[in-house]
Each structure stands twice: as C-alpha cells, then as structure tokens.
Design goal:
The chain is α+β, with helices and mostly antiparallel strands and 678 residues long. It contains 23 helices and 20 strands. Strands 1, 2, 3, 4, 5, 6, 7 and 8 form an eight-stranded mixed β-sheet that branches. Strands 14-13-12-11-20 form a five-stranded mixed β-sheet.
C-alpha cells in the first residue's frame, strides 16, 4: 500500500511540518498570516483560471502542500497564547518584581507534591485589568488546608515566579513541559493568603469535576480501599492524581501504564459496548443515524467527564470518525481515518504534537494496523482459545515495536515482561470497564449491592497484585538505555523500511532496509564521536557538593554524599543516560581541578585558599566558608565565583552582592543550574 497516495495523509504531514517549523524557527504571527493568505489566494486563482487537472498538475500539488505547511505555521501562532493582546505576560513585561493582585479560577486539580497542593488556574484579572493566561498554583499543605475545586474563584496578592529550568543536565525539563501547555509562571500561597469569591457560574469542566467528586463520594460508602479507588478513577474517570508512586511505578515497570490512561483501548471497548447496547435502535426508522449520533454524543460525554485530557480527546476524536464511517457505510481507509483525526486535533490543539502521550498513542495504533497482520501470519492456530490469546499477543508485540523507540528516548527503559501483564489484563479489560460502569451507575442510584462492590474491588486488587508481581522481576526491566534523537529517527526509518519490505519485496524496499541499517550505524558512530571530549560539571545538590569530571565516556564523581544520598541522586543517572556515559567512578573531593588548561580552586568551610601553583580561573565555594570574598578576589583574581547547593543562602546572597560590586560573574547552582566547563 502506497500510503502517500492518500491526499489527507499528505496534507496532515505538511500540516505537521508547518507546526514544527513554527515551533523551532519562532515564526511570528503576522508573516505566517500574510503568507497563508497569499498562498490560499494563489491556490484559488490557480484553480479557477487555469482549470488544470488536480491529480496530475505538479504546480497545483506543490502550491497545495505549501499552503498546508503555511496553515500549520499560522495555526500554531494563532493558538500561541502570548500572542493574545490581553495575555498577562504583556502587562507583566513592564513590571516583574512587585506583587500583583490576581483574580483566578481553578481549571484543573493536579497531582500534589510533598509540600504543596497543585492546581492549574486561569487568570481573570491582574491589578484591575482583564487578562488571559494560565498559571501553576502551589498551596502549602497542612492538615487544615481545604481542597480547592474546579471553577472556584480566588483573589490574592502575590508574586509571579517564573518556572525554573532543571538544575542539572539531563534532568526532566518541567519548565519546557509547562511551556508546551502555555504555562510560564507559578504562584505560591498559604491558604489564608487567598480569598474565595462567591460565584454561581459553572463551566462544563466544573460540572464534570463535580460529577467525578459525587461518584467518588458514593463509592467511598462501600469497602473500596484507597488504592482500588485510585485505579477506578484512572480506568473510568481519567484521573490519575490519587495513584501512589509505588503503584504507578509498578504499572510502568510492567509495561501496563497505558491501561491507567484513558486512551484508544478504553474508548474502543466503550464504543463496542455502546454499539451492543444500542443495537435495538437499528429496528427503528433512521435507526442507524440515531445510533451513530447517540454513540458519538455519549463518547464525547465520557471525554468531558474524564476531563478532556489529551489522551481521551484524541481517542474519542478518532473513534468518532470510525463510528461515522461504519454507520454511514462509507468505504474508508484506516490510515485516512487516523490522519484525519490527527489533522483535526492539531487544528484545534497544535501543541498536542509535542505531547508524549499523543506520540505514543498514534505510534502504537499505526504499529498495530501495519505490523500485527504480518506477525499473525507466522502462526494461525485452529483452537479458538489459542487464536484469541495469539491475537492479543501479536497486537501487544506490534504496539511495542512501535512505541519502544519513543519509550527509550523519553524514559530510557524497556519492560521485558510487558506481554505477561498485557496477556493477563487486556482479555478481561472489557469486563473490567463494563463492570466498572455498572458499579458507578448503581452506586449513583444507591442500588449497588455490597457483593458486587466487594467483587469489583477484588478484581482491581488482584490486577494490582499481578502488575506488582511482574514489576518485581527487575532482571527483565532494562533501564538506563541511551537513545538520541538521531537514533530515534533512524530506528523508525528502519522499522518503516522493514514493514515496506515485508509487504512488497522489491529492489526499492531492499535499498530502504539497507539505508536504514546504515543509518543506525551512522547514528551510533555519531553519538560516540559527539560525546568524546572532557568536561567539568559542578552539579547542584542541596547540602552537598558533587563535582563530575567527564573524560570521553567515563564520568569520575568527586562528592561528599553518603550511600543513601548517592543512591537517591537520580539526576546522576539522568546525566549518564543522556550523555552516553559507559562508566562511573567515585573519588574524594580535591582542592584543585584542571580542565583544558583552566584551573578551579575549591574553598571549603576551612576557608583555606592560598595557592601559587597555577593561575585560578574559577573558585568554587562550598560548605559556607567564612572568608573575606574581596580579599580572595584580590589575591586570586578569578574570572568566576561559583557557589553550589551546600552553602547557606545568607552567605550566597552576600557573595552575590560582592561580585556585583566588583563586576565579577557569580554563579549559584541552585539558581543558575549546574556549572559546566568543556
């Protein structure tokens, strides 16, 4: 099958190119809007006056693709919230240091951290001016702190803090993650610092949140454990905030995390259930149309109840198109349906393209429909039970072929026993979901028998135990695997080439496979060459000092960590995987470090810094030394003063002011991130 012969697929690819171009090249709104208008007008003129054949005319095709790329650029900019005239950053640009009187509405309840309850909020007013934009709200946690609800409106005087970048190289970039959701600042409040405003207005998101809260209140009247309720919320209501870290990690390590995210798997099962339940409507006049409309409406109602997350939105969009095509008996191609859903989603939410779940979901679907039929041909069992489990196994294996490169690129691990958890859970997932919906409906009607509630709780309990058992086989969980963007691209090119070859064994597809293999080898050699060289890294770790000496692909760590602190320093593993480090060695801290003919002096709490062995380029202050910094600067004449996370903040602030007066660069790892010399 020649996929690119389908117009919608070509247009979707062009639209994606436009979104990527606007994101990485920072194309502004006015040029993109002007270019799109010019290209669309040119396309119209070409169509009306030249009357060429659409299929064969190269000029029309090129103009159409350029117009679609330009449309992608324009749509990205139209949705880019800082471009909005009333976005708060335009007002904040003139005054960033003083506190603001903010009026905001709760949009979404997020997973809490150790010290804060977290919420996504929508700004309404800032200093009596109507504004737009979203913020991250952090409310200090204690036993008396009430929980906030969606659609609650508050007023508070507070500072807007920028989202900090990661302090160490290779760490998860939370700042970039939030920026892709148009969140650029956060606020910190104690509960008493905000005033709740009475409001009778409710959005559909607030109504959905109230319904979820009401469902949970009803379910809590039965004997469901907190862990079971958390899974029910994830499976049926799309809310994963209450899942504890251990349970979440068990599902990740078992390769079953997709079961907890309401996605295509859940929506597909729900669609089949609705088709079965609404089958009697087919006996009515216009019953097919009525059933189609009801299924689509109910799917979107489910999406709203689940909070319209990215995963459920894309799944419901795709299956809505599938339902329409099936009920109207229109001949369609599954690739066209997938491309259409991608196009529609990105048209309204272009930043979905950068969502990891979006990438994993569509990659899994494409892998299943393209690879699973080929895997199934290897064995065609005559036994129905064997046929059933073989089908599930091939579907799971095909999906893993597709998502493995992305999973390795983002998460650096691969669950070797993924097929066990999937073979055990997926066959009964329809029963779990159908029974869960029945449990919720009966609980809302106060008709839920205790036997049914206990039985359903038992199913969830044993599912968790199974996942935990698979997760405990750590020998089959391959961790800390390095994969670069170049390797990711070449991996997918090779997978695509192999699929094409197995479908069409031609000279062209053989060449594609060979180029894919060569590409994999080139990416490996490129990474090896690119990560050669030496570097000196002063990592940031609260109350401790960690200095790394990178020598090609070996990292020597000089630190004062104990064994427990060292094992919990996950950023060291992040650095290892992201920089393709093969070997890590440990050593004690030194007073002098040398990198590329530059010398760094370490001054600890003893305050000794007399040295005449070499000119000092950098000075690292650790463990809050009591020194006269002016005298040190006059004596050593360094280019940069560095303070790591082991120092008292009062000392750091004093050193910073001294460096400002001396017009000397000052670097604090807790504020500016790790200090790196290459």
């Amino acid at each position: 099958m020649k996929l690119l012969n389908f117009t919608i697929i070509k247009l979707t690819l062009c639209f994606i190119i436009g979104v990527l171009a606007s994101h990485f090249l920072n194309v502004s709104l006015l040029p993109s809007l002007s270019l799109t208008i010019v290209l669309v007008i040119s396309l119209g003129i070409y169509n009306v006056f030249l009357k060429k054949s659409f299929k064969r005319d190269l000029g029309f095709g090129v103009l159409t693709f350029l117009s679609t790329i330009s449309l992608g650029i324009m749509v990205y900019n139209i949705h880019y919230q800082p471009n909005f005239p009333k976005h708060y950053t335009r007002q904040l640009y003139f005054d960033k240091s003083s506190s603001k009187r903010l009026s905001f509405k709760i949009l979404k309840i997020l997973k809490p951290s150790t010290f804060h309850n977290k919420y996504l909020v929508k700004l309404i007013r800032m200093d009596d001016k109507a504004v737009k934009g979203k913020l991250l709200l952090n409310v200090a946690r204690d036993s008396t702190t009430p929980s906030y609800h969606v659609d609650d409106i508050f007023v508070a005087n507070t500072l807007l803090h920028p989202i900090p970048p990661p302090n160490n190289p290779g760490q998860f970039d939370y700042k970039s993650y939030l920026e892709k959701q148009y969140i650029y600042h956060q606020i910190f409040l104690e509960d008493y610092e905000s005033l709740k405003i009475d409001s009778t207005t409710h959005t559909i998101f607030g109504l959905a949140a109230n319904l979820r809260q009401h469902i949970n209140h009803k379910l809590q009247q039965y004997n469901f454990k907190s862990s079971e309720l958390a899974i029910i919320n994830a499976l049926l209501l799309g809310q994963r905030q209450d899942i504890d870290r251990d349970t979440y990690n068990n599902y990740v390590n078992a390769g079953a995390i997709h079961i907890l995210a309401v996605s295509g798997l859940h929506v597909g099962v729900l669609m089949l259930l609705l088709q079965a339940l609404l089958f009697p409507l087919l006996y009515l006049k216009h019953g097919k149309v009525i059933r189609m409309i009801l299924i689509v409406v109910l799917l979107w109602c489910f999406a709203f109840i689940a909070g319209l997350s990215a995963s459920v939105t894309r799944a419901v969009t795709m299956f809505s198109l599938v339902v329409i095509a099936i009920n109207l008996k229109r001949r369609t191609n599954i690739y066209n349906t997938i491309a259409s859903s991608i196009f529609l989603l990105l048209l309204f939410k272009p930043m979905f393209l950068f969502d990891v779940g979006f990438q994993l979901s569509y990659t899994a679907v494409l892998s299943i429909i393209s690879i699973q039929p080929m895997l199934y041909k290897f064995w065609k069992p005559s036994n129905k039970i064997a046929h059933f489990f073989w089908s599930i196994f091939t579907v799971t294996l095909a999906a893993q072929f597709g998502v493995a490169p992305i999973g390795l690129y983002y998460f650096h691990q691969f669950p070797g026993l993924f097929f066990i958890s999937n073979l055990a859970i997926i066959p009964v997932l329809g029963i779990i979901l159908g029974l869960g919906i029945l449990v919720i409906v009966l609980a809302l009607c106060n008709l839920l028998p205790d036997v049914l509630a206990s039985g359903y709780g038992g199913i969830i309990y044993y599912m968790n135990r199974l996942v935990e058992w698979v997760s405990n086989h750590e020998a089959f969980i391959f961790k800390d695997i390095s994969l670069s963007l170049f390797q990711l691209i070449t991996c997918y090119f090779l997978i695509f080439s192999l699929v094409q070859y197995l479908n069409h064994k031609t000279y062209r597809t053989v060449l594609m496979v060979l180029f894919g293999i060569i590409g994999i080898q080139m990416s490996y050699f490129y990474n090896t060459f690119n990560n050669k060289g030496d570097a000196l890294i002063i990592f940031n770790r609260n109350r401790h000092t960690i200095i790394g000496q990178k020598q090609n692909r070996t990292l020597i760590l000089h630190h004062d960590l104990d064994s427990i602190s060292y094992s919990t320093s996950s950023f060291l593993k992040d650095y290892k995987t992201n920089h393709f480090i093969n070997k890590i060695e440990e050593d004690s801290l030194r007073l002098i470090y040398e990198i590329n003919n530059k010398f760094m002096l370490v001054v600890d709490n003893l305050g000794i810094y007399n040295t005449k062995s070499a000119p000092i380029d950098f000075v690292l202050l650790r463990q809050s030394p009591r020194i006269n910094l002016n005298r040190l600067i006059d004596s050593l004449k360094p280019n940069i003063i560095i303070a790591d996370g082991s120092n008292y903040m009062s000392y750091v602030e004093r050193w910073k002011q001294t460096c400002l007066k001396r017009k000397l660069r000052f670097h604090h790892t807790a504020k500016n991130g790790a200090f790196i010399v290459e």
